Amino acid sequence: MTEQQRNARFALTVLFGINLMNFFDRQIAGALGEPIRVEFGLNDTQLGLVATVFTLVYAAVGVPLGRLTDNWLRTRLIAIGVTFWSVLTAASGLAWNYTSFLLTRIGVGIGEASCAPAGQSLIGDLYPPERRARAMAIFMLGLPFGLFAAYMLSGYIGETWGWRAAFFVACVPGLILAGLALFIKEPPRGAIEQRTSLALPGSPFRSVLRIKTMWWIVLSGLLFNFNSYAVNVFQTPFLQRFHELGLRDANTISAVSLGLTGAIGLLLGGWLGDRLRVKRANGRVLVAAFALLFAAPCVFMALQQPKGGVVVFTILMGASSALSFAYYSTVYSAIQDVVAPNLRGTAVSLYFFAMYVLGASFGSTIMGALSDYFANQAMLNAGATQMAAHFRAAGLHSAMYVIPVLMLLCSGSLFGASRTIAADMHAMVTQTR
Fold first, then answer.
1. pLDDT tens, residue by residue, 4-35
2. Are 102 and 190 contacting, i.e. CB atoms less than 8 angstroms apart?
3. Which of 288, 27, 62 has the alpha carbon at shortest distance from 144?
4. What is the pLDDT of residues 270-287, one digit of tens each?
5. Which of residues 277 and 188 earns the better pLDDT score?
6. CA distance linking residue 153 with residue 174, whole number of Å
7. Of all helices (H) and strands (E), which one includes residue 191?
């Protein structure tokens, strides 16, 4: 094994760990949403707003950090970001009211905005195109394992020592990984593609936005993230309210159905995406398009399960997650295929800005608002004058039917990308020679 290969493996291992903590720290608030809501006296709209504020800050800060990624040491940027968000995660456990909790989550969002652009840019320079989807799949395994750990540990810690303790526990591994990031050797930009020139005329943002496939990918991202954040914030409260489970049991189901099963889709999606990419230019996005197409009916049937039908619900939501997670390893790699190496940090930050501002930020808040609306309608239809637990359960149940509809729209946008990606890949190769 060469020194370059050893560095690539070490870097990917550390980046996987950092990405795991990225989603672990991000999801703690969703896993503990119900006890936080009760302690601070919140409604579902306010609960959803926590994720909205987080994602808006994450997206806004991500754009300048994406440009910094293309012009500065990526390993150092990652180390600083991980340190910052880990400390602010611990500070979330010290919040004394709703406003102070929001402020600490804003701090976490600022730190986490450094992870994706720099991490994906590093992978693009460490692994050749034919192995990139599998490397990206390993990096993105941090997402399902981070969600799994967040739900499992938060449910146990929250039920045993209270919700605040879970935020304190999350700080230590992040600080360790921040130190390890400094030992990654920074690879030269674009060397893996053996380009002779990487200079492109005009604004870097305009250069990215001229790529037709990026518009389709951005559209898919905002639809995908709308669903992801809505489900991550509200599935555990849904299980507690509609299926009447305790905090620990509800989080265990979410850990398996939203986290662990996603690892299967990431790995299979990355493997299949690389295989099809050899045969046809649009192979990766086609894998993602069909995966989302099949995931939508799984969610619909899961929501059709009667009260207490948690086994079938878990199986169907797990199947949906396994299919949906193929999106990360295939679509994220497709961005690397159509964007020049010295613009990848910029492209990822623009993509994240759009999908978080227009997708994720709306997902949790709109889901919360719909839940409150349908709960109020259920109360009025029953002739009641006071909100009760079963009205909140019915409201959230009705609101979640928006998820399979948007999955189908996301699939359609990826089929659109499959029609433009070949030409954009050819243009990228031509421009950077």
1. 777 788 889 899 999 899 888 888 887 887 78
2. no
3. 27
4. 788 878 887 888 888 899
5. 277
6. 16
7. none
SS3 2: coil
Residues present in the chain in total: 433
Contact 38, 98 (CB under 8 A): no
The pTM for the full model equals: 0.73
CB count within 10 Å of CB 164 equals 18
**236 Cβ partners below 8 Å, 6+ apart?**
30, 31, 33, 34, 151, 247, 250, 251, 254
On average, the pLDDT of the chain sits at 83
Helix (H, G, I), strand (E, B) or coil at 388: coil
Say if residues 172 and 25 touch (Cβ distance below 8 Å). no
Return the amino acid letter for 407: M
Calculate the alpha carbon distances from 345 to 348, 384, 394, 433 in Å: 5, 54, 43, 20
Q: Do 325 and 266 contact (CB within 8 A), yes or no?
A: yes
Take residue 379 and report the two structure tokens written for it: 């109360």
In single-letter form, the type of residue at position 320 comes to S
Contacts of 422 (CB under 8 A, 6+ apart): 281, 282
- Residue 294: its pLDDT value, please? 96
Whole-number Å distance between alpha carbons of 334 and 425: 9
